């Protein structure tokens, strides 16, 4: 499993083993640099960041998800976490008997408006263990919605072959690197056609799409850290701030400064408006 950076604080591990009901909800703020050591639960759980980038290490892979995505961890799967920036964390733990229709492997799942609204409602009312018939029905709706959502291996998948892994590592170190697919192929001593095929087979997307997802994740962290839009744009390899703003708007559904304002507004619930 990839090594985590040193943690500023330890994230408490939720104990759900002795609960009677089928669901448990969690709503917390995790500080930048906080982490949790490798652990597992007999329950499955959805991990969702209302703001911030969620990072989990699971089954030897690092999984990153922005606010539009959650990470599903099935029962019994060992995982750890580290937060580059502060995160508003929400989760729904699901008893094993209710996980049968959910993915058997850890994966990223897009968080739709119904799931988001229910998690916001539970957080606003301080619901931890849904007790009423109505609240348990709402929790089951989240499970039903997740069961109908196509899973992704990871929002930012890793590569298996050394050549493609070298390209992704180089991009992760310098997201602003704008080399073309042909130039990357030459750099790792392969053909453009072979590298494109590796991207399709191992990543499920083109290299350009992977690079955009990486830049978006880095932009989210940079905005939360208070950096200026123009500075972020140039660091990420955009020729103009307007090109960066257009990308961010397309992915997040709002321009970067509006994204930042929702974070500064307080609890981060403004992020729940993201499509």
Salient structural properties:
275 residues; alpha+beta; 5-stranded mixed β-sheet; 5-stranded antiparallel β-sheet; 9 helices; 20% strand
Average residue-wise pLDDT: 89
Listing every helix as H and every strand as E from the N terminus to the C terminus, the arrangement reads: EEEEEEEEEEHHHHHHHHH
Give the low-pLDDT segments: 266-275
Shape: globular
Major sheet attributes:
5 strands, mixed
Q: Give me the secondary-structure category.
A: alpha+beta
If strands are numbered along the chain, what order do they take across the biggest sheet?
A: 1-3-8-5-6
Number of strands: 10
Helical segment count? 9
Protein architecture, described:
- By secondary structure, the protein is an alpha+beta fold.
- It is built from nine helices and ten strands.
- It has helices at 113-125, 133-147, 162-173, 181-187, 192-203, 207-224, 229-235, 241-252, 256-264, and strands at 9-10, 23-30, 34-39, 44-51, 54-58, 61-65, 69-73, 79-82, 87-94, 107-110.
- The strands form two sheets. The chain has a five-stranded mixed sheet with strand order 1-3-8-5-6, with no helix packed on it.
- β5 and β6 (61-65) form a beta hairpin.
- α1 (113-125) runs antiparallel to α2 (133-147), α4 crosses α5 (192-203) and α7 (229-235) packs across α8.
- The protein is globular.
- The two termini are 32 Å apart.
- Mean pLDDT is 89; it is low at 266-275.
């Amino acid at each position: 499993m990839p090594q985590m950076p040193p943690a500023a604080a330890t994230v408490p591990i939720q104990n759900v083993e002795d609960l009677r009901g089928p669901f448990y909800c969690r709503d917390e703020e995790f500080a930048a640099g906080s982490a949790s050591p490798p652990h597992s639960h007999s329950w499955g759980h959805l991990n969702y960041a209302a703001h911030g980038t969620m990072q989990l290490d699971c089954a030897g892979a690092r999984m990153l998800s922005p606010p539009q995505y959650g990470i599903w961890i099935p029962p019994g799967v060992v995982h750890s976490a580290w937060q580059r920036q502060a995160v508003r964390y929400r989760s729904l733990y699901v008893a094993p008997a209710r996980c049968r229709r959910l993915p058997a492997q850890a994966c990223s799942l897009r968080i739709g408006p119904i799931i988001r609204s229910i998690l916001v409602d539970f957080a606003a009312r301080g619901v931890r263990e849904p007790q009423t018939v109505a609240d348990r029905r709402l929790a089951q709706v989240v499970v039903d919605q997740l069961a109908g959502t196509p899973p992704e291996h990871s929002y930012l998948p890793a590569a298996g072959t050394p050549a493609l892994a070298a390209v992704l590592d180089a991009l992760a170190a310098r997201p602003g690197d704008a080399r073309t697919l042909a130039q990357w192929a030459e750099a790792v001593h392969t053909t453009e056609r072979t590298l494109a095929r590796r991207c399709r087979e191992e990543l499920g997307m083109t290299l350009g799409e992977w690079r955009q997802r990486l830049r978006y994740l880095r932009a989210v962290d940079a905005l939360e850290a208070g950096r200026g839009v123009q500075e972020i744009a140039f660091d990420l390899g955009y020729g103009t701030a307007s090109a960066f703003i257009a990308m961010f708007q397309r992915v997040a559904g709002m321009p970067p400064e509006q994204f930042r304002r929702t974070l500064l507004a307080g609890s981060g619930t403004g992020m729940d408006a993201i499509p």
